[in-house]
Amino acid sequence: MGHVxxxxxVLRSFVTGVELGSFAKAAERLGRxxxxxxxxxQKLEGQAGTxxxxxxxxxxxxxxxxxxxxxxxxxxxEINDEAAAAVRGVELEGWIRLGMQEDxxxxxxPEVLGRFARAHPKVRIEARVVRxxxxxxxIVSGRLDLALAWGSGVATPFHETIAEFPMCWIGPADxxxxxxxxxxxxxxxxxLEAPCLIRTAATEALDRAGLAWRQAFVSPSLSGLWxxxxxxxxxxxxxxxxxxxxxxxxxxxxxxxxxLPKLDLVLHRGEADPSPAVARLAQIVQHSVMEEVTRQIRxxxxxxxxx
Length: 307
Description:
Elements: H1 8-20, H2 23-30, H3 34-48, E1 53-56, E2 59-62, H4 64-87, E3 94-101, H5 109-119, E4 123-130, H6 132-140, E5 146-150, E6 158-166, E7 168-172, E8 187-192, H7 197-209, E9 213-219, H8 222-230, E10 236-238, E11 247-250, H9 252-255, E12 262-269, H10 276-305
Parallel strand pairs: 3-4, 3-5, 8-9
Antiparallel strand pairs: 1-2, 5-12, 6-12, 7-10, 7-11
């Protein structure tokens, strides 16, 4: 069997289409016709020797081989882009102020900083992990160059929704949540201090379902929230992103708790035309988020298969 050399332009179309959820949108972003992108995908599947996409309703979803290809394609494109910057003599320098919501501090931030620092060691990054309200205040006042935050309805001049995650009820990892719907007791809630958009989503969902609730624990930080939830002081609501190993998601079917909406993940930029260093960091943040989205899809699929 001869060597297969994948075309990076084809891989870029494939990755862009998956990330945007539409190959027509990918064609528009990449400045190609839809038919040209379709031809590229056919070429990629021909080189792979297997289907990478399959129809699901009106759309397309990745096959198992497609998920594998997506992970490698992202890595190849990242290395290519780093190499292009290096050989062109574009050695990024400067200072970037990056802000992230607490949920991303342990899950995404180390990976993002590691990737960026290896490629651009002369750029200084000041990272701030705080809550949504402070992130919005800092990006609007010009004290941050980039901010990754949950969509709170606050519009900033330069922002892009890059993913969405489901909110879910969270309980202790040992399985004893200390409450059941048959008890008739109010739902004990553990939450962050107000204002908290996820806390509001939880209480509104309970009110709509006609379930009484009580505020059992309030924490100023996410670490305190995980400790209280793990100890069984109350149930909380977050997304599956960045959960502590001491807690686990709960299903509405198992608990009788109401379903919860999805939450947009938004990347805010301080300027319309950011510096090359900021633009590159934004790209790495987006790639890391999309990798996490893919991982969550796999986890959801494996969880469904186990029941």
